[in-house]
Amino acid sequence: MLLPVTFFGQSYVTGSSGENPLDEYTWATMMYNHPLEYEEFGMSDVPKPDQGTVLIPSNMMSLDVCRTAVALYREKKAEILQLLDKYIVEHMIHDNPAFIPMKDEWDPPGINTWRKTNTDEMKARGNLCIRGEYVGDCLSLSCFTTSVLRLCGFSPEEVFNIILIGHVVNVVQIDGKWYAVDSSNSLNVRRGQIDSLIYEFYPPYYNGIMGIENDKYFVSFGTLWPDIYPYLTTPFSNMNETLLCDIADDIVPLFNNSYLGGPKELGGYEWDIHDFIENATLCPDMATVAFPYTVANATGSTDEEKAQSLLALNKEFILNQTGGEQLNQYDRSLYATGFLSVEYPQAYANAAKYAAWTGLLAGKFDSASPVLDCMMTALRFRLFLRNHQILPTGCIDFPDLNLLCRTGSSLDKALLSYGTLRNMKKDTGLWQPKDLYIVVTDDYKGYLAVKTSDHLQYLNFEKGRLILPEISNGILFVFNEENKYDTLP
After folding, report:
1. Between β-strands 2-7 and 32-33, what pairing exists: parallel, antiparallel or unpaired?
2. I want to staple 119 with a disulfide (CB 3.0 to 4.6 A). Which of 62, 126, 255, 425 is the partner?
3. Does residue 416 share a domain with residue 270?
4. Contact 360, 424 (CB under 8 A)
5. 437 and 309 share one domain
6. pLDDT band, very low/low/confident/very high, at 17 (cuts 50, 70, 90)
7. How many domains, the chain?
């Protein structure tokens, strides 16, 4: 089924392989999914093929990634890697120590966090932290490293995310030699505990190699967590057999002769590479198409002009990959970035009801009447969140990021309020989509239209009255988790 998409002012076609595209885009949207089951909505899923394959192209559409690539680009790849090593140490930090001595509120008791954070979101988190400009987990930092090196001219056969048991790092090839890069160790370098993030032999902390990935390739040797990642219990590979054998021969010794997969006693695989190749299948959600552009393709007389040029090239390339009948990593990356000009903005509303904090806050905010639900939810978010756009104009934030940063635009707050109200009781049941509509105005402001009785009223998240009978702004479009409308239905 081919689906028309209007994006960046142009029309494109995306596809569906028979699965519900709204669900698929919902999981790609959820940059922070806690495997915390809610009584009403169940467990949120993870994006396909996996988090990293979606985050890397999302990062390619970050101006900060393009700026970094332009600043670090050199003719010699060894020099680029050394500069990136220094850049990560100076600017980036793993989120576990990021907020010491304060407790990281993203890790409350009983909630196991599986963070998937693109560069723009890492920068938003970095604004809360004096230790780093960008804050993310090991996966997020590795995706940043892969994205920057790819834009600096490293081929898709020369740099990968390596998914270990409980950790993600990078491998990089220069002049026929492979190196491991662990961006999570930036603070240890600052403290003088180690000299560099680059390893000729990686310390034997993690013994299983579970996956290899970048923008073009996705190799999954299986998962130890079938309840969380059932999709990844299938062995996948879209890599040429000879190339995969060569890479495995080189990186297995780099990681202390680790096995491929996970230990059998824990329900995983321990593959011989040739047995894996015989059993692996092509991942249907991965397009074997690599980013063709690097800093060398960018135009402009200044670094900023070159970064803007590279960003435009990357966006155009991604749009050109979204025309097939099968959803792929590039389709999903548009939603991971939070662009509003997609065919299914209702995925953002659907994701908001699954967001970890909207469910938790709903239990605390739930009031005795629908009117109080609306008033108190809007009032709290107006007072609690500074009115400021976190992500680039034309994007919408995932609600948990707003709550973490205590910041959001009026549109972000409307989405956050939607997800919170959907987890609250209204009359004899939950608030329903037919009673809630996120209104996007032509100046990218937002309101939440709510139906407490027979007519709609508007929750206002900026100055003025809390509840408005009507709005004067021109409406760009309206959506809830079910539909997108040109005007309010």
Report:
1. unpaired
2. 62
3. no
4. no
5. no
6. very low
7. 2
Cβ atoms of 128 and 405 within 8 Å: the answer is: yes
Identify residue 60 by its one-letter amino acid code: M
DSSP state of 157: T
Exposed, middle or buried: residue 70 (CB in 10 Å: 0-12, 13-18, 19+)?
A: buried
Q: Alpha-carbon distance 146 to 169, whole Å?
A: 10
For residues 373 and 6, what is the distance between their CA atoms, to the nearest angstrom?
35
**Does pTM top 0.70 for this prediction?**
yes
Helix (H, G, I), strand (E, B) or coil at 222: coil
3-state class (DSSP) for residue 165: coil
Pairing of strands 159-164, 92-94: unpaired
If phi > 0 it is left, if psi is from -120 to 50 it is alpha, else beta; for residue 2 that is beta
> Tokens 């500074």 map to which residue?
386
pLDDT tens digits along 442-463: 999 999 999 998 789 999 999 9
Q: Within 10 A of 19 (CB to CB), how many other CB atoms are there?
A: 12
Residue with tokens 């435009």, as numbered in its chain: 312
**Nearest CA to 89 among 191, 196, 186?**
186
**Tens digit of each residue's pLDDT (9 = 90 or more) over 73-113:** 999 999 999 999 999 999 999 987 665 544 444 444 434 44
Peptide bond into 49 cis (omega under 30): yes
Same-domain pairing of 277 and 163:
yes
Q: Can you tell me the distance from the alpha carbon of 456 to that of 459, in angstroms, rounded to the nearest whole number? A: 10
Please, where are the H alpha helices in 30-136? 51-60, 63-72, 77-91, 119-126
Domain span at 429: 346-485
Closest CA to 142 of 185, 190, 113, 176: 185
